[in-house]
Amino acid sequence: MQMRTIEIVVGTFLLAGLISLAILAVRVSGFTVNPDQQSYTIVAKFDNIGGLVVRSKVSIAGVIVGTVTEIRLDQRTFMAEVAMEINSEVDEISRDTTAAILTDGLLGGKFIGLSIGAEETYLKEGDEIYDTQSAIILEELIGKFLLNQF
Amino acid sequence: MISSLRRVGQHVLLLLSVLGRSGEIWFQAVWRRPRIAHAPLLIRQIYQLGVLSVVIVALSGFSIGAVLALQGYNQLVKYGSESALGLGVALVLVMEIGPVVTGLLFAGRAGSSVTAEIGLMKATEQLSSMEMIGVDPLQRIIAPRIWAGFISMPILSLIFCVVGIWGASLVGVDWLGVYEGAFWSAMQQGVDFNSHIMKGIIKSIVFGLVVTWIAVFQGYDAEPTSEGISAATTRTVVYSSVSVLVLDFFLTLVMFNF
Lengths: 150, 258
Hints:
The complex is a heterodimer of chains A (about 150) and B (about 260).
Chain A: H1 3-28, E1 39-46, E2 57-60, E3 63-74, E4 79-87, E5 98-103, E6 110-115, E7 128-129, E8 131-133, H2 138-149
Parallel strand pairs in A: 1-7, 2-6, 5-8
Antiparallel strand pairs in A: 1-4, 2-3, 3-4, 5-6
Chain B: H1 2-31, H2 39-50, H3 54-76, H4 85-123, H5 126-132, H6 137-175, H7 180-190, H8 193-221, H9 226-255
Helix pairs in contact in B: 1-6, 2-6, 3-4, 3-6, 4-6, 4-7, 4-8, 4-9, 6-8, 8-9
C-alpha cells in the first residue's frame, strides 16, 4: 500500500484511540470538563454515617445540588464530620436546614438529603448544619424492634 | 537423583540465559535514541500491528459486551436492580476484560505475525546481511515493532471497551428494556476516571510491552528452519497469553491495593 495511505490510516487509528478515551472519560466515568464550576462548602456532623462515601450526592427535594467531598472523624466528639460542596446557584439554604442520610432505593448507595428550614439567614462557605439525622442502620432497627416486642 | 538435579539446574540456567538475551535485545532496541529517519518504519508497524487488529478487537468487544449484558441482566433482574447493569458491565470491561482480552487477541493476531516475520528474516539471512552492510537490525527491525506494540495496545484496548459498552447498551437498553437514564447514570457515578479507567490503560500498556517483547525475542531467537519458525510462533502465542493472564493478576493485586 502507498505510504501516504498508511499514514492516513494510522492517523485515523490514533484519533480513534483519543476519541475512545474521550468517550470513556465523559460518557462512562462522568468526567466533568468545567472545574471552575462555582461551589461553596458546608459541613455537618452525624452520629453515624452508615455507608456514606466521598462523591456521594447531596440533594434537595431529590434534585442533586452537590457532592460529599470529605469525611473524617471529629476526635473530640467522636462524630463523623462530613464536608459537602454545594453548587453556588443554590445559595439560599436557610440556617436551620436539616441534613439526613438517606438510602437510594433498597440496595442503592447512601446520599444526603437536605430539608430546607424557615429562617431568613442563609448558609455560607464553611458554615455548619446543626440539625442532622443519622443513617438508618438496619441492625439497630431490628434491635429496637426486638426490644419492643418482648 | 543427581541427574534429575542436574536437569533442573540446566533448565534454570537455560531460563536465565533466555531472560538475559531477551532483556539485552529489548534494552538495545529501546534505550538507544530513536532516529527521526525511522519514523516511517514505526508508522508502518503501527499499521501492521494496530490498525489491522481493529476489526477483530471491535468484533470481540461488541460480542463480549453484549453477552455480559445478557448474563448480567439475568442475574440482576432477580433482585430488581437491573439499573446497575451498566455499572457492572462498564467496570468489568474497563478494569479487566478490556485489557486482558485485547492482550490475548493482540498476542494471537499481531504477536504471532511478528515472530514469523522476524524468524523468516533470520532464516533467509536478511538480518545478517543487514549487519553486514552496517545497518543495525535491532534499531531498524526490532525497535519499531516494540514501540508499535507499546502505542497500539492501549488504543486497541480503549476501542474494545467503548465498543463493548456500546454493545452492552444495545442489548441492555434497546432490547431488554433497562431504563436508559439509570443505565448511564449508575455507570457515571460508579466508574471513576483515575481509579478505574487509568488503571485499565496502564494494564494494557504493560501487556502491549510484554507481548511484543516476547514476539520479537522469539522471532530473533528462532532456529532458522521452517520447524524452528513454527515452534517459535507457537511459543509466542502460548507464552504471551500466559504472561498476560498471570501479569493481570499481579497488576490487579498491586494497583487495586489489596
